[in-house]
Amino acid sequence: MIELEGVPELIDPVMVAAFEGWNDAGDAASTAVTHLEREWKGEVFAALDAEDYYDFQVNRPTVWMDAGVRKITWPTTRLSVVRVGGDKPRDLVLVRGIEPSMRWRSFCNELLGFAHELGVELVVILGALLGDTPHTRPVPISGTTSDADLAQRMGLEETKYEGPTGIVGVLQEACTHAGVPAVSLWAAVPHYVSQPPNPKATLALLNRLEDLIDVRIPLGELAEDARAWQVGVDQLAAEDSEVAEYVQTLEEARDTAELPEASGEAIAREFERYLRRRDGGTSPPSPGERTRPPKPPKPAADDDESSED
Predict the structure, then answer these.
(1) Residues 186, 188: Cα–Cα separation, whole Å
(2) Which of the four pLDDT bands, split at 50, 70 and 90, describes residue 220?
(3) Which helix (H) or strand (E) holds 182?
(4) Are 114 and 93 in contact (CB under 8 A)?
(5) Which of these, 3, 9, 309, lies nearest to 166 by C-alpha position?
(6) How far is CA 77 from CA 18, 54, 73, 198, in A?
(7) What mean pLDDT comes out for the span 57-75?
(8) What is the pLDDT of residues 231-247, one digit of tens each?
(9) How far apart are CA 41 and CA 163, in angstroms?
(10) Quick check: 302 pLDDT over 70?
(11) End-to-end alpha-carbon separation of the chain, Å?
């Protein structure tokens, strides 16, 4: 059993997770969780044993100096908790780490053990992938779940993906098998400018997360960083006629595909976000207020319970 000493009883807790590696194009997802930790001053209360899950020849530890003393930071996954204030306070359990090198099922079961002990009501996993999307257009964000009822209630897609998967897909399926409501939010990062950081994709993930869990996220300088990033990529593209032509092709394809989406729900969502930020409050409550799924059962200790996406 996992014992969490010093962690107070949490209010409507949501677990938000992101992992560096294959599921983190442009470091967009891991940077989003780092932003939440920094803005809300998250305090780490637990870390997974690095020896259990990481190959140190793949993810090297780092050595640093602290007041003249050499110390080592081991690659691992850490959990912190932050409280979001306002009229309807709630707590976020933030999970930030590196995609494990081994024992993925045990890794997921350990995270689900923390979720059970903390009374987590929803798990949101952030990811980013490379796609044929132009950097000049809004970053596409897809929200998926394996739960048909949750998909309908939260306006998400029911995942139909088949193929290779990473820790995001494995953790989402582990949540499903354990009876824990889980959602994945994916940002599409232009493949021709994949190097990190990508503040525009990070910002898009945080905006979608804000809508999903009904909290107002302080963005700090992220919006300005996103604009500066786009200007920089614009300049690089302008210097190469082939890249500029390719970007134009992507723009035309994107605009044609999304023309029917230029009205309706997308505009309503942006208008609600504008009002929320102007008034400094939270978004209008839904008819059912916050969804509170029943407390999930504790996951089985068996290492073979979860399956891939």
Answers:
(1) 7
(2) very high
(3) strand 182-190
(4) yes
(5) 309
(6) 10, 10, 12, 22
(7) 93
(8) 999 999 999 999 899 99
(9) 38
(10) no
(11) 27
